[in-house]
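Q: I'm building a small set of examples for a reading group on sequence design. Run inverse folding on the following structure and report the sequence directly after it, with nothing in between.
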């Protein structure tokens, strides 16, 4: 079975009209918008944004994400130390939620995107449909990373008892927010159709430029 790319067809991302690709960029016959058969430089953009997310993830875990003031004395808490405090207080469900949303989910997204980029670039990979499922899982997990930001914002808004006790967001919240945003942009920059193109490359026994 031939694919649309083999038949010289391309889908307009604006009006979803199937066009016969004559040139690139192609002007859609319906909406007259310009588009490419594959997202240009998809792997480069994904890799760049994912590296930026990894660099932001490091200070997000090193700097305090929350500062609790008690009698005017501030007690800084990083993500890991905050999780430890919840565990010490017996608040295991909250500790698990924070650990999952703040550590596990971002790492899964960052590592997963690196794996997809590497596999598409080298061709050493699982079946393309398996990688497509990985991509959709990573895309689904993106917004859940913001849960930790919402928890801190909620604590800042609710736990406010004046001079006795108050909570303020630490500098790590900015880096963590950037990590979430960068991973979401990286996932959106990745063109999952490249996974299927790579399968065609292996079947046909020749190498094409997967970004075109």
């Amino acid at each position: 079975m031939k694919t649309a790319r083999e038949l010289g067809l391309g889908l307009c991302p604006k009006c979803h009209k199937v066009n016969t690709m004559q040139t690139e960029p192609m002007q859609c016959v319906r909406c007259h918008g310009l588009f490419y058969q594959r997202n240009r430089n998809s792997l480069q953009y994904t890799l760049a944004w994912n590296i930026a997310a990894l660099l932001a993830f490091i200070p997000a875990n090193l700097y305090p994400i929350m500062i609790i003031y008690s009698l005017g004395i501030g007690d800084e808490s990083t993500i890991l130390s905050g999780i430890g405090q919840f565990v010490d207080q017996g608040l295991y469900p909250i500790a698990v939620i924070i650990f999952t949303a703040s550590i596990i989910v971002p790492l899964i997204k960052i590592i997963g995107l690196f794996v997809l980029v590497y596999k598409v670039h080298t061709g050493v990979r699982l079946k393309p449909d398996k990688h497509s499922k990985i991509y959709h899982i990573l895309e689904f997990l993106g917004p859940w990373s913001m849960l930790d930001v919402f928890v801190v914002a909620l604590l800042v808004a609710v736990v406010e008892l004046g001079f006795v006790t108050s909570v303020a967001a630490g500098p790590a919240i900015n880096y963590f927010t950037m990590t979430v945003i960068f991973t979401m942009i990286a996932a959106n920059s990745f063109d999952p159709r490249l996974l299927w193109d790579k399968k065609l490359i292996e079947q046909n026994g020749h190498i094409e430029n997967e970004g075109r």
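The chain has seven helices and seven strands.
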